[in-house]
Recover the amino acids of this structure.
């Protein structure tokens, strides 16, 4: 819990596959930083696509976003110059991701995966490194080098100034600092070749550090790739196929063999 009542109330939506939804796999959708449009329109569209594939979906508002943004107080954003509060928001988001994953499994869903975009991909990557119950992860333009983001992006100026006064080791915030619990056949990374917020080179660094999982490189910028319906359709299909792979696939069967 935090000092903000609004932030402590988690709002979201579950799209179930009929009355027998508990027998179906599920995917947790994680939105980007302040991506209200994507959460309101793109995620329901994705949820319908997953439902048609027999997959439940859950989406929820990340801390300090949308309806959870505090009405009062100095800190009203997930990313702020208050590094202590920012780290608290990260821990809160990871706790909520794990709670949703664990709840879906307890309901009977045979497997649960993550699909994250930008900030949501970073959080999904962190969760996949520490929760062995996550089955598969799709990371679209993940903020893999948080230290570079803070150092280079304009809206992170307040954070840079705060770090001058109180230095902080940012390496633990980088995805390459951690190792995923998943085998590489169950990780998909998507990079945008013209991304100025999340340089493609940082995704390549993560790709190498994580053992070269599947990587798509597309001629987009950071915003346009998140608006690409063709990419979203392709990524949801990729995830849908793997969600139907027997659990034995995690015990040595390669995904390409299991899909033949």
């Amino acid at each position: 819990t935090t000092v903000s009542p609004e932030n402590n109330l988690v709002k979201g939506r579950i799209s179930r596959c009929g009355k027998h939804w508990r027998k179906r796999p599920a995917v947790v959708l994680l939105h980007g930083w302040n991506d209200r449009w994507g959460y309101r329109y793109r995620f329901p569209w994705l949820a319908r696509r997953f439902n048609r594939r027999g997959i439940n979906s859950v989406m929820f508002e990340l801390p300090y976003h949308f309806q959870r943004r505090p009405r009062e107080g100095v800190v009203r954003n997930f990313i702020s110059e208050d590094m202590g509060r920012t780290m608290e928001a990260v821990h809160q988001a990871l706790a909520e991701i794990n709670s949703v994953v664990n709840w879906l499994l307890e309901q009977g869903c045979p497997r649960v995966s993550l699909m994250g975009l930008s900030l949501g991909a970073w959080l999904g990557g962190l969760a996949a490194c520490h929760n062995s119950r996550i089955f598969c992860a799709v990371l679209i333009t993940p903020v893999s080098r948080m230290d570079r983001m803070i150092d280079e992006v304009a809206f992170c100026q307040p954070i840079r100034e705060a770090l001058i006064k109180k230095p902080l080791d940012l390496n633990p915030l980088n995805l390459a600092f951690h190792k995923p619990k998943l085998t590489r056949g169950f990780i998909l990374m998507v990079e945008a070749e013209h991304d100025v917020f999340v340089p493609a080179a940082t995704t390549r660094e993560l790709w190498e550090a994580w053992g070269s999982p599947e990587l798509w490189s597309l001629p987009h910028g950071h915003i346009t790739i998140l608006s690409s319906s063709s990419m979203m359709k392709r990524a949801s299909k990729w995830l849908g196929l793997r969600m139907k792979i027997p659990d034995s696939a995690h015990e040595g069967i390669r995904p390409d063999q299991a899909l033949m």
Summary: Residues 248-260 have pLDDT under 50 and may be disordered. Residues 6 and 71 are 8 Å apart (CA to CA). The first helix runs from residue 5 to 8.
